[in-house]
């Protein structure tokens, strides 16, 4: 996202120089004379960004067009011998038999997760927005999933789903379900999908709840009073006051949630490792597989570029939404 | 106020840099005074590293001019850590490598060729199945330390209670089936969804993985299909423990076996230390160890694994490093690892040492090693399990038929690993 922000001024500058006035060089030098201090202050940040973001990005894109793998990659002590092979890696990806299932589960994973994050988060936020006893305690407890490092949560969920020794399987057996009928939570393709999504929903709800609670508290109480005077009941107040008032916050967190969930690696990696078969692989975990298991860096970086392109579309939507909401709020 | 703080900061940083420089200077000065420092990364577990530390002390007192600098690297991080360091030219002199690493690292130019240093007597003394992995492209790249192979492990008490003779473990797959049924519903055997442990079935029924010299992929051939079918049949049978969880299967298998919930499992010598801590094995003699049985055509196999030592390409102390790894793979060192850690020696002669001879677990596993099969020695062979595991799991969960599932594995190997190989179906 940051990289697009940085890249954007360029086309605008080109347009401006076409319209006449001082030339580009003049304007740059004038701007530099005027703002040199600001540029000097930005320089360290830019340098760090260049090393940590721009260089790897450009190199990653370059590698995605090469046959780089473990045998030709080289290093400081060994010369690199990989070559440019054009779009071969992209062809490999788009013709691979797993692509359809991986792409489909990536979509299901992203939207189902964010749907439950939002609805459950909103429900909890509404519940906590009223004055009730021990509200502070509830809030604190509901934040627990967020406060625990995600790999610890993932391992705990893996234990809960363990069949027959995990918590769920033991509970079901205590309730009288015979062992044969206890589901294979992590090795049945459908159950495994349910399991990883459940774990991630649990992990993601607190953030939505906190963000939406903040949004709810920002809604002017007078609007509710006015609606009540007009005779609106609770449901009508929710749709006419709460939802519109929540829109700026909701749109932002949902879009952010989509981006994060799309790229959520550790939950799947640690709970099912993409299995059984490839039934819980998403783009992020599958790219990892290519890089660190098959060690085919060309295909892996090509996956990275594809993921980046998809996220660029998301972030473009995000930018437009934010801008539109900004106009709505301030005009 | 601000300025003084800045000055303090600058002073502090400079002082730190000076101290660091001084340390580096003294360290390099010391190393120039006639002692050679050999660096080594060990991937062993805690108990094994204790034995290693003792051996290092013995070695250093016998060779006062050499200092061994040992660092522990977790086994599952060895690949990433060593390859990164080797590509940058900063790898340690000695690395402990899993056998599948050797050809891979050799082909990638990370290792020193030690062919000329290994004597003819040594070459004959190493167990052929283990030493095979250290020969790649006509050169020797390392020395085997501790080979292993999975065996059929069984609970003698449970087997006896079912009216079977624990002194006569099953010799054929048919007998294994009979044992399983006899022990009883869901208590007979625990079968994994991990492809490594399916390999004995593949070989027993005449199948194979790949044949690098012939450039053939064998995993979808008739023998492999028969082996996979037999494995699935046993996996689905009533006597098999309900393995409902591939993600946790390895741990569950150990738990079930240790607690007497299942009578037989297939696992390697590395697992015995854990098993002997289980309530069923308070008396270690209750643990039976036998080779994985033969198939209908009399074929038998169990994948040989294990670890050994290699010397990195960037090592500046090859002679000293070789001296130390040959010390670590000689009789006395192997006897120490055998006695304290149940590690199988890689030398035939070591099995005559009393401390090794009297170790019952090692004697049992030696019988397994004698009929074990070497995995294909190829730089890319380590990558086969990435697609083999999902394939096996899909077959076991009825997502695909056996022929289709194995063909998928073969096709994946062809496209991702060996594009020039042909897939054998017959």
Keywords:
heterodimer, A: about 325 residues, mainly alpha, MetI-like fold, disordered N terminus, B: about 425 residues, alpha/beta, D-Maltodextrin-Binding Protein, domain 2, three-stranded antiparallel beta sheet, 18 helices, 14 strands
Molecular structure report:
The complex is a heterodimer of chains A (331) and B (426). Chain A has 331 residues and is mainly alpha-helical. Helices cover 74% and strands 0% of the residues of chain A. Chain A contains 15 helices and no strands. With 426 residues, chain B is of the alpha/beta class. Chain B folds into two domains: 181 residues, 3-Layer(aba) Sandwich (D-Maltodextrin-Binding Protein, domain 2); 197 residues, 3-Layer(aba) Sandwich (D-Maltodextrin-Binding Protein, domain 2). Helices cover 45% and strands 14% of the residues of chain B. Chain B is built from 18 helices and 14 strands. In chain B, a hairpin with a 2-residue loop joins strand 4 and strand 5. Chain B is globular and about 70 Å long.
Give a brief description.
The complex is a heterodimer of chains A (331) and B (426). Chain A is mainly alpha-helical.
Largest inter-chain interface?
A: A-B, 43 and 42 residues
Shape of chain B: globular
Q: Main β-sheet of chain B: number of strands, strand sense, barrel status?
A: 6 strands, mixed
Query: The biggest beta sheet of chain A, please?
Result: none
User: What proportion of the residues of chain A form beta strands (DSSP E)?
Assistant: under 5%
Which quaternary structure do these chains form? heterodimer
Tell me the domain tally of chain B: 2
Low-pLDDT stretches of chain A: 1-18
Helix content, binned percent of chain B:
40-55%
Segments of chain B where pLDDT lies below 50 for 5+ residues?
none
What series of H and E elements makes up the topology of chain A? Answer: HHHHHHHHHHHHHHH
CATH fourth-tier homologous superfamily of the largest domain in chain B? Periplasmic binding protein-like II
């Amino acid at each position: 996202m940051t990289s697009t922000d940085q890249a954007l001024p360029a086309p605008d500058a080109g347009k401006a120089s076409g319209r006449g006035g001082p030339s580009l060089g003049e304007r740059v030098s004038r701007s530099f004379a005027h703002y040199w201090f600001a540029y000097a202050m930005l320089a360290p940040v830019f340098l760090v960004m260049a090393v940590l973001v721009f260089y790897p990005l450009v190199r990653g894109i370059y590698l995605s067009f090469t046959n780089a793998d473990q045998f030709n990659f080289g290093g400081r002590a060994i010369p690199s011998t990989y070559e440019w092979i054009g779009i071969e890696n992209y062809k490999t990806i788009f013709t691979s038999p797993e692509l359809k299932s991986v792409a489909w589960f990536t979509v299901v994973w992203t939207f189902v997760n964010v749907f439950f994050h939002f609805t459950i988060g909103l429900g909890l936020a509404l519940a906590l927005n009223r004055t009730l006893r021990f509200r502070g305690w509830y809030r604190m407890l509901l934040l627990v999933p967020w406060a625990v490092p995600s790999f610890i949560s993932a391992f705990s969920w893996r234990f809960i789903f363990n069949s027959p020794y995990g918590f769920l399987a033991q509970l079901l057996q205590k309730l009288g379900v015979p062992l044969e009928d206890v589901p294979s939570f992590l090795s049945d393709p459908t159950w495994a999908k349910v399991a990883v999504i459940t774990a991630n929903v649990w992990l993601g709800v607190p953030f939505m709840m906190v963000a939406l609670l903040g949004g709810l508290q920002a809604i002017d109480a007078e609007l509710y009073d006015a609606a009540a005077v007009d005779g609106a009941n609770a449901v009508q107040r929710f749709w006419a006051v709460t939802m519109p008032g929540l829109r700026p916050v909701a749109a932002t967190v949902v879009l952010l949630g989509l981006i994060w969930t799309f790229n959520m690696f550790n939950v799947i990696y640690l709970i099912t490792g993409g299995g059984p078969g490839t039934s819980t692989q998403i783009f992020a975990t599958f790219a990892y597989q290519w890089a660190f298991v098959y060690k085919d860096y060309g295909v892996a970086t090509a996956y990275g570029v594809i993921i980046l392109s998809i996220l660029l579309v998301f972030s473009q939507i995000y930018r437009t939404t934010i801008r539109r909401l900004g106009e709505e709020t301030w005009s | 106020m601000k300025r003084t703080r800045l000055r303090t900061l600058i002073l502090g940083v400079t002082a730190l840099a000076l101290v660091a420089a001084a340390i580096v200077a003294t360290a390099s000065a010391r190393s120039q005074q006639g002692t050679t420092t050999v660096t080594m990364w060990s991937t062993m577990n805690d108990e094994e590293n204790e034995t290693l530390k003792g051996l290092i002390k013995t070695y250093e007192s016998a060779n006062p001019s050499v200092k061994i600098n040992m660092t522990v690297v977790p086994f599952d991080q060895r690949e990433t850590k060593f390859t990164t360091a080797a590509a940058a030219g900063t790898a340690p002199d000695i690395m402990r490598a899993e056998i599948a690493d050797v050809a891979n690292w050799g082909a990638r130019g990370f290792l020193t060729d030690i062919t000329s240093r290994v004597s003819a007597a040594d070459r004959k003394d190493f167990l052929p199945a283990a030493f095979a992995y250290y020969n790649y492209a006509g050169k020797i790249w390392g020395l085997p330390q501790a080979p292993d192979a999975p065996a059929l492990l069984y609970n003698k008490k449970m087997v006896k209670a079912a009216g079977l003779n624990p002194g006569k473990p099953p010799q054929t797959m048919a007998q294994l089936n009979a044992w399983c049924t006899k022990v009883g519903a869901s208590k007979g055997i625990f079968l994994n969804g991990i492809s490594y442990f399916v390999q004995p079935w593949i070989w027993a029924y005449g199948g194979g993985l790949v044949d690098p010299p012939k450039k053939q992929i064998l995993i979808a051939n008739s023998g492999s299909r028969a082996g996979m079918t037999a494995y699935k049949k046993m996996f689905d049978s009533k006597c098999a423990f309900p393995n409902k969880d591939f993600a946790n299967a390895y741990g569950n298998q150990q738990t079930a076996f240790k607690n007497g919930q299942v009578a037989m499992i297939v696992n390697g010598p590395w697992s015995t230390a854990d098993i002997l801590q289980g309530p069923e094995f308070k008396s270690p003699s209750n643990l039976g160890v036998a080779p994985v049985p033969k198939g209908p055509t009399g074929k038998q196999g169990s994948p040989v694994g294990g670890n050994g030592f290699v010397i990195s390409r960037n090592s500046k102390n090859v002679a000293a490093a070789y001296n130390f790894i040959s010390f670590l793979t000689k009789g006395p060192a192997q006897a120490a690892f055998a006695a304290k850690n149940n590690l199988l020696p890689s030398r035939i002669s070591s099995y005559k040492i009393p401390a090794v001879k009297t170790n019952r677990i090692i004697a049992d596993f030696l019988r397994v090693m004698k009929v074990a099969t070497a995995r294909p020695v190829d730089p890319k062979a380590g990558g086969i399990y990435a697609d083999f595991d999902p394939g096996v799991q899909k077959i076991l969960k009825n997502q695909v038929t056996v022929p289709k599932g194995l063909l998928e594995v073969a096709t994946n190997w062809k496209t991702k690993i060996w594009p020039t190989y042909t897939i054998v179906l017959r």
